[in-house]
Fold this sequence. Notes:
mainly alpha; 3 domains; 5 helices; elongated
Amino acid sequence: MGSQIDKLLEKYWNGETSLEEEKVIKSHFKSNPALNNESHYFRYLTKQKEVKYKGSKGLSGKKAWLSAAATITIGVITAALVFNDAGKDPFDIDDPETALQATKDALMMIGSELNQGQSHTLELTKFNKAKEELQEES
């Protein structure tokens, strides 16, 4: 029996076994629990078949349909917006005055964002200084 199992194992690892041959291999290792790698592997497969999926609470049927519909709607709207503006170059401005105003607006936006970041950095500096003072006292 050992040489037959060895041949079946070789076919199994090469992916050449039939379902019936795999059943023979699995039943062999179930009835003859040897302490080798193949035995552990097939016992593991058997245990994994017995594991029952409990599932998650997830979304109920109606909520799942609404969620799917909302996702599809958002996808369609996004695709329409992207493809609608696909032919236009957002940086193609013919009028020099309009281009100057767009540049000023962009620079003002960047400047305001940098100022906000600088104020947050100042707050963090104060916090770190207070933390260091507390650590020095203790």
